[in-house]
Every structure is written in structure tokens, then in C-alpha cells.
Amino acid sequence: MAAVRQSVELLEKNKPQQERAKRTYEGILSAAAELLVDVGVERISTNLVAERAGITVPALYRYFPNKYAVLNALGAALMDKQNTVFEKWFDHYLELGDLQLLLDNVYELLKRTYDVTREQVGGLEIVQALRAVAPLREVRLASNRLVSSQLAMIVADVMGQPVDERIQSQARLTIEAGYAIVEMALEDDSLTPELLLREGSRMLQAYWQGFMRAG
Amino acid sequence: MAAVRQSVELLEKNKPQQERAKRTYEGILSAAAELLVDVGVERISTNLVAERAGITVPALYRYFPNKYAVLNALGAALMDKQNTVFEKWFDHYLELGDLQLLLDNVYELLKRTYDVTREQVGGLEIVQALRAVAPLREVRLASNRLVSSQLAMIVADVMGQPVDERIQSQARLTIEAGYAIVEMALEDDSLTPELLLREGSRMLQAYWQGFMRAG
DNA sequence: TGTACATCAGTGAACGCGCGTTCACTGATGTAC
DNA sequence: TGTACATCAGTGAACGCGCGTTCACTGATGTAC
Q1: H or E segment at B62?
Q2: Which of A103, A148, A203, A204 to mutate to probe the B interface, most B CBs <10 Å?
């Protein structure tokens, strides 16, 4: 009797080609981001998005098959930015082949991730929609798994160890904890973001410090 | 022009008094939990909930003013269970006045929180709805703040320190990270929950170990 | 123990509204000649 | 440089449906006498 959740098309339809179309496309994403803040995931609709973007609904349907595809595009763009921050940071400090240098600069990573998420309108709401909306959940999971397996591989390589379950889950946990810390810093205004990010980086440092002594 | 998000009534209306009413009330909550799994937060509606609970919609409105109140009741019940787990664990190991004992048993706390969330139908979905749905977000934040300020107070007391911002954010971060770990263990089936919870507890231990040496 | 009655619990029917989606269309843009 | 034409972009109108919410109501439960 349980209704099986139908799979949802998340891919975009027509790509915008002309200048005007690109503005429309961007306008849809901006409107969606604003509405995520103003009315929330549970209330957002293609009608509302089109109205706020100043276009008619069929124009939206030209580019997106449904509202999940809009949220997906929004989420994918933000995750891309976050992943880029991570990769740049990682590559930069890895140059010397010394993991300790990475550890010493965890705060910088958290702060940059925080900044990039904060700069995006509705950044927090987007990230939380990725957690809560089922068709998007898998997108987020896949992205986090990818990043953490890259992390696990490189760390194992530098330390001359095999990529076992232990190191995989350590990497996975690190990524997940990192995002949780950033989200908390965005969400909670009773403590300053800097303080929370500081503490967060101390936590990750302490975690890896033990591993590096043991390994 | 930005639509201001209206505040939403989250409180229940009539409390069920007779036996039959209690069954109806519980049936509403169970139906909502199932639907959270089957159709997701963005699709759940009072109509769907009433239908699945085997009652008519006005019967639901007898107890809840809207769907947010239903989700709120569901979320509050789960957070209560989680907080109870925490408090029992905390009080139990604090008896000897030794924080180290608490640290040594962090895994147990995470595992019990994991279990209690897993046992609730739609536990993960409920927790994520609490994050993503704005009117509920504050409920979750308030609960986490309360628990972490209690933690901060007791820890400061045992260590003979004042409750400063530093210790407050440390406690806050611990609670938030704890829940993030549990949620990841529930969400990701590519790594075993036990392994992830183990790693999670190692992370929290390493974090506090440094604090206790320093303090 | 029986029943009348007050209160509690749930129903059926109705409402206006915004939702997602599609259609045949008009208008804008860019380019081949 | 001008224009005809193909393609791209967006519109207006319409649809059936499920949504939240309310109403006057019937039926169930419990208790005073």
C-alpha cells in the first residue's frame, strides 16, 4: 500500500542559447534562491518562481521540467563552488607533501567554505534543501562521497598506507563534519561565526593529529 | 517587495481526551511519519495525512491547526527522546565527577542516539525536516542550545572554570557534530553505521582530550 | 441496572485558490544572401 | 546595407486536480441520577 516515491527528472531541458535566454535562465535561479528564503522549500512552486523572475510559467518550463530540476541546478552550482574551494585549498597546501600544513590551515578552509555559501543568496536554505528533499539528497551524497574518496586516496598515498575502510570513513566524517560546522555557523547567530569556525577547525585538527601520530 | 514569512501556529488545539481520540491522534502522527518517508516534506499535506490515518480532514483539524503543527509534534517527540538519551548518559557517567569517564563512553551515546532515531519511523526524515522547514528550524535550534548550555555549565563547573564563550561554543559544536554524525550514519549506507559512529566518537574524544589537558 | 443527557469525536459536503502542465500562438534574434 | 527567413524565446489561455479550511451535522462515549 505504501506509495513508492517516483523518480523525478532533475536534468534541464533546453539550454539557453541567446543572451536574452541566459538572462531568463539566471533570473529563474535567482528568483528560486530568493523564494527559498522567503517562503521555504515546502512552499516554493514553479508559479511563484516564474512570477518573481518576471516571466510566464511556460517560459520556465522551457528550461526546467519541474521545480526539483530548478532546485537541483541551484544546489549543483553551490556544491560546485564549495568543492572548488576545497580542491584549491587542498592542492595549495599539499604542494609540499606535508599533511601537517593542511592541518594547520583547516580554519582557512572552513572560513572560505562559509564565505562562499554565505555569498550565495539563500545559501543555507539551498544546502538544507539538499539534505531534506529526497530527490536531491542523493545528489548531495554523491558529491560528498566523491570529495571524501579523493581525500582518502591522497591522504593514504602521502602516508604510504592502503585505502581501507578506516581511512575512508575518516575522510567521509571529516567532510560531513566540515559542512555541519559551516551550516551551524550560518544558522546560529547567538555565537559569532568566527568563534564557531575556530572551534570547528580545532576539532578536525585534534581528530587528524591523533591519526597522524598513530599512522 | 520581499514577502515576509508569516509566523505559523505550531501549537496543538484540542488535546485528545477519550481513548478513541488518543488512537486517532497517534494515528495522525504515524501517518505523517510514514508520508515523510514516502512523499517527502515538500509533498506532505493535511489531506494525505488524514487519508492515510483513515480519518477525514476535519478530524485532523480538531487536533492540529495545520501541517506544521503535525510536523512540530513529530519533531518535538523525537527530540525529546534524543535529549533523554543524552541526559541519562550524561548523568550516569558524571556520577563519579570525572569527565574522562564521559569521554571514554562517547560511542555509547552516539549509538543510543542513533538507535532511538532509527527506531522512529521516518526518524531521519523528521530530523531533516526540522533543519529545512523554517518554522521548525527555531524549535530545533532552541532545543540544541538548551542542551549545549547545560553541557557547558556542568563541564565548566567540574573543571572549576567560568562559562565563557569559548566553552559555550565548544559545547554547542559538540552537540551539533554529534547529531551530524548520527544523521550521516543513518543516511549513508556505503559505510557501516558502527564504523562511522566509532570514528565520530574518536573525533569528539580527540577534541575534548586537548581541552582537558590544556584546561 | 437503566436511561437521559452533556460532552467529546468524527463526518459529508462545500468553497475558492494555487498548483503543475500543455497548447497553439506571437514576438525577438541572428544570419544567409 | 537591407531584407527574408529560420530558429530561438516567451506568451495567453486553458485544463483538471489537490490543497487548506470551514460549516452544520451525526454518532460515540461517559456519567448523573
Answers
A1: helix B57-63
A2: A203
Report the gap between the CA of A17 and the closest CA in chain B (Å).
Answer: 30
Distance CA B63, CA A78 (A): 40
Mutate to test the interface with B, among A169, A198, A213 (most CBs of B within 10 A): A169
Task: Give the pLDDT confidence of A79-131 residue by residue, as tens digits.
Answer: 999 999 999 999 999 987 788 999 999 999 999 999 999 999 999 999 999 99
Q: Are B137 and B129 in contact (CB under 8 A)?
A: no
| DSSP category for residue B191 | S
pLDDT at A144 over 60: yes
Task: Say how far apart CA A61 and CA A46 lie, in whole Å.
Answer: 9
Can you say whether residue B191 is alpha, beta or left, with left for phi > 0 and alpha for psi between -120 and 50 degrees? beta
B178, B200 in Cβ contact below 8 A? yes
- By C1' distance from the Cα of A17, the closest nucleotide is D8
Number of residues assigned to chain A: 215
Task: Output the distance from B140 CA to C1 C1' rounded to whole Å.
Answer: 54
Nearest nucleotide, C1' to the C-alpha of A54? Answer: D10
Residue A1 pLDDT grade (very low, low, confident, very high; cuts 50, 70, 90): very low
Rounded to two decimals, the pTM is 0.94
Name the amino acid, one letter, at A37. Answer: V
Q: Report the amino acid identity of residue A68.
A: Y
Gyration radius of chain A's alpha carbons: 20
CA–CA gap between residue B68 and residue B52 (Å, rounded) = 17
Question: Domains in chain A and their CATH numbers?
Answer: 74-214 (1.10.357)
Alpha-carbon distance of B23 to B39, in angstroms, equals: 23
